[in-house]
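ugh finaly. both done.
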Amino acid sequence: MKKPDPLKQGDPVALIAPSSPVTEEKMEAAQKSIQFLGLHPVPFPSSFMKNGYLSGTDEARAKDVNDAFLDSSIRGIFCLRGGYGATRILPLLDYENIKCHPKFFVGYSDITALHTVFNKFCELITYHGPMPSRGYHTMDYFSLESLSAAVFHGSTPGMVLNPPKEDIEILCPGMAQGQITGGNLSVMAAALGSRYEVDTKGKILFIEDVDELPYRIDRNLTALKLAGKLNDAAGIILGTFADMPEETGDPDRTLSLSQIFDQTICPLGIPTINNFRSGHIYPQITIPMGMNAELNATDGTVAFIG
């Protein structure tokens, strides 16, 4: 895997919108965020586009991704937000040129689709972390430190600690090593059966999601399981499942997240932990996707090992 060069103060970085559009307010926050880090924001055309729930046409959004990697003046790439749409541009990306021009790349949620293909086809380590429209200048210290370490120092080996007072839950003990892959559960499930699906064989699979009813979490985990993606994994890290709405009606007619994990994941006997604080939540850990990691699901620890 190629490790992108860390950024330096003053470096120009691209702002792109590969998925859904941002408001003027969020765009302003994004530019302030980049300046707050001491970097120079360079908004690409998709940052200002709107095509219904998409930020511009598929061709325009894909062009921005390709151009951001090919532009020699751009040192890093920050996705403005998730939403929906990144999967639509996957056939339009120039993977060979992206592979030849590795750069720091960060985002999460719908950006999972891009992490997957950049790891898989371009052998590039990318970063699952906060997006600048969130407002880095107002972000909590833990999240900012985790992101800043990735931005300015790259993926360095060492133990990864949860935020204070957030304990790791051990679901299935054991040890596992492998590259970290995965991200948003719904996005991974949507790509199954295509050449863009996540490769989990011998890897540490990270899973998170937001605003999904229990049966949808169950359905998507079951889809991964039926496709062999859970069974192929060396270990599983369950991140944050944020803003989970409760089923209405009789509580005996639904399942809790714990019950879903117990019934779909635990029978596999794969080392698994829960409540690794990354996903649609703050504070959150920035994860170097594609980097080798060690999961100790007996002690409940995760370490990047280079």
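ok and the 2nd:
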Amino acid sequence: MNAGARVSAGPEWTRYRRVSDLGVEVLGAHFVQHVYHRHSHDSYSFGYTEDGAQAFRCRGGAHLSTTGLAMAFNPDDPHDGHTGTPSGFTYRMVHVDPGQVRAALAEAGYKSALPLFTDPVISDPELVNRIRRATDRVLAGTDPLATQEAIDAMLLAAIRRHARSRPPVAGRAGLSNAPVARVRDLLHDRYREDLRAEDLAAAAGCSRFQVYREFQARYGMAPSTYLRQVRLRAARRLLAAGEPPAQAAVAAGFADQAHLTRWFRRAYGITPAVYQRSV
């Protein structure tokens, strides 16, 4: 299946994407008649119900996840699943390798113990938003830096708010100006590349979580947002110089013209074509 590809069968459909180097898989689906037989995953699984209701058994009890509720499964949690309404249900689920969870906790300053979730159905709109953002990023298949940030934010929100056992946090000192400035310089120098959180951490000489916190505090935005701003400004210069929008998009580090147009309009309220004509 192609990355992020959607497959339909009658009223039912699925959309799936796997990112091996991040240790994540995302499934979005709408099911009416499909029934999950009892099974388990070797990963942590976080999801939410977008519409309808899904019923399942897990950890010795029956559960119902309705619109707007989140779900959390530990590795090897046996569960099944089927629709809880005649019209079916729509949901998203992200599976995260335990090794990635352990690495994320270590980066954030936690000790190595893995978390344990006791409630498979969770009422938490903030966590649902975090899961939505993470799955959006993975399914889009672009911007690896923003994807890593969204996955990390989702994991930490789930662990801090809902894990029964949470490893203690070790104290960490803040970064000096120099490492954060090196990250900023890297974003300006290599904005055409698909930069990753590890690239920023290597430039700063610390964990990606510390980079995120300190950069956010220093510049008022996440590194991925700052990178997109740098790319948009590069695209404006190219458009002003007469570069066709499609070529300007790729040269500035965007996936394609549609990707540039979407963010250009969000940032400036007009399309690249309108901007170029006005210049």
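summary for the 2nd one i guess: Residues 215 and 221 are 7 Å apart (CA to CA).
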